[in-house]
Here is the input.
Amino acid sequence: MTGRRTRSPSGRTGSRRTRGHEAGSASLLVVALTGLLLLLGLAAAFVTATAAAHRHAQSAADLVALAGAVAHQSGEDACVRAGSVASGNDATLAACALRGDDVLVTVEVPSPELAGHTFTVRGKARAGPSP
Here is the structure.
């Protein structure tokens, strides 16, 4: 019986097997794949922005440690100088310590917002005279 032609009430001829239950399934697949691609794009953008925030935190930590080491060698308070340089670079000085002539710092930078939550990215550095 498959493949047998029948006449519909409108006068058209067609196959007896209809695909009415499959009508619109391609549209659903396209919508689902579009949503998946959008989600993957947003995830990639968030990961890229977080990596950029980490690079910013690490660069700020390096600069803050160097400024603190120069201040310490000049007889100034290394952590005060480090704090002012950190705030000038849109970072927060989380920790500052002197170990001999070395200045060890940790700075924090806010990462991009995800679902209403902001995370903190940290950068650590050490600077001092060469041995």
User: Anything to note?
Assistant: The helical segments are 25-73, 78-88. The beta strands are 5-7, 13-15, 92-99, 102-114, 117-127. The chain has one domain: 26-127. The first strand starts at residue 5 and ends at 7.
